[in-house]
Amino acid sequence: MIVFGRNVAEEVINSGKEIKKVFVSTTFDDKKILNYLEKNNIKTIKMNKREMDNKYKGNHQGIVLEIEDFKYGKLDDLLNDKFIVMLDHLEDPHNLGAIIRTCEAAGVDAIIIPKRRGVEINSTVMKVSAGALNNINIVEVNSLAQTIDKLKEYGFWIYGTDMDGTNYTDVVYDTRTCLVIGAEGNGISRLVSDKCDFIISIPMAGKINSLNASVAAGITIYEVVRQKMKGE
Questions:
Q1: Mean pLDDT score of the chain, rounded to an integer?
Q2: Which of 23, 95, 93, 96 is nearest to 60 (CA)?
Q3: Which fold has domain 2-67?
Q4: Which end of the chain, N or C, is more open, meaning fewer C-beta atoms within 10 Å of its C-beta?
Q5: Residue 208: its pLDDT value, please?
Q6: What does CATH list as the number for 75-231?
Q7: Strands 19-25 and 63-67
Q8: Residue 230: C-alpha distances to residues 172, 174, 222, 226 (Å)
Q9: Which residues touch 77 (CB under 8 Å, ≥6 apart)?
């Protein structure tokens, strides 16, 4: 996987992930990172800024790393978890990164994403998540609907988010909880919605009828956390 940026480079170094090789611009001057690369005999290739700009689009900040692919967890790893967030085919890596960051900060145990027709962990997700990827379990599954059936066997109750549902603050989250966040624009799919035990919604007082997926996730995640903390 290709990742880029000074902060991401520091996160990769701190996480202990395998670094296969590194590309740095001739003007890159972060001595801490450069010393680490040299000390650990990591292959480092220098490029001029124009060449790097042409090859690696975006704000690379003079450093690009080729690292091991992200390692997803397994569904069976969630047997003892209490709060899971499931993402129903999100397409924007910025939303995924922001949700991962929120989940890690809120103490969510794990995140479930689909293998197909949705964004996967990439360099943008890693950058936006600001290091949270290293501290939360992310599970990739073939079927969200079948996964919900499995979670119910584990004792989870499934709460889907949609415009036409019960006010999210009027619902009690006092059991093992799986919160489902829908995709940008389309929301949660009919098949997934039909599997949910509850459909919850955030009241909208303005003229628009929906929120950004990562914002909606943050609001509902912290309501679940608030209730669980209150009940302890």
A1: 88
A2: 23
A3: 60s Ribosomal Protein L30; Chain: A; (3.30.1330)
A4: C
A5: 66
A6: 3.40.1280.10
A7: antiparallel
A8: 11, 10, 12, 6
A9: 110, 137, 139
